[in-house]
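Recap slide: Serine/threonine-protein phosphatase 4 regulatory subunit 2, sequence and predicted structure.
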Amino acid sequence: MAATVNEILENSSVLADGFVQLNRQESVPEVLPNHGAQESQVLFSEEEVRDTLEKSASTGRFWLDWGKLRSILSYRLKQVLSEYPEAAMTSEQQTSSLGETFQELVERLDNALHSFDEGPPFTLQRLCEILLSARSIYPKISKLSLALEKNLLVTSTLTISTEPYPLPTEQNSNGTHEESGLAQPQPQPEPAPVENGVEPPVGDRDEIMADVQEAEVGGDNVTMDMETIEETVKSSEANPTPTVEHKSS
C-alpha cells in the first residue's frame, strides 16, 4: 500500500530531528582530563585571588588546600602573562621575540607549577610578589618568564600553616590599612622549606630567598642557578647549627 502524504511528512520530520540531534552531539568538544582543561572551568573572583596572594606574599605561609591554591596561582599566572603585548602577536612574531610561541611559554610555566604535588615551592612568597605586581617589576615578558622559571625550578616545598588565618584588611579614611577585628597574635618565624620531610633551620630561609631575588636581578648574566640554592638547603639539613651549652660557674 502506498504511503500517504501525511505519513511521508511525519517520517521526514522524525529523520530531520534525529539528524539535528546527532549534529549537536558531535559538535560538543571533548574535554581532556588534564589540569589545563579542568582549571579553565574554575573561576575565581579578583578579590579572592588578590587576598590569597597578598597573604602569602606578606607572610610566606599558605592556608588553603594546595590543590585550590595551585589553581589560583595557575589562574593568576595565565592572567598576568596575557596582559603583555606579546600575547596579541602572531605566532611568527612571538617565536621571533620569545624563541617560542606565547602558548608554549604559558604551558611551560604552568607545567612547572603543576610539577609540585605535595605543596607549593619554598619560593611561594616571592612567586606571589611577582604575580601581584608583574608589570611594575618586569616591563618585558622575557624578564618576567625568567623570574617565574627561577622560582619554579626548585624541589623544596612548604607545608600548610597551622597559624590562624590573617583577617582581611580594611582601608581607613586616610588611605591607610589596618586589620579588622581583635588584635592578632605576634608574628611567628616564617615556615621553612621541606625537603623529604625534613625542615632546615628557619634562619637559612631568609638567606636562600635573598639568593633567589639576587639571581632575578642578574637577568641573563646570572651565574647562580637554582641547583646551587637547593644545595644550600640540603647542606643546612645535613649540618645544622650546633647549640652552645653554658656551664654555670
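Residues 4 and 31 are 46 Å apart (CA to CA).
The first helix runs from residue 5 to 27.
(End of recap.)
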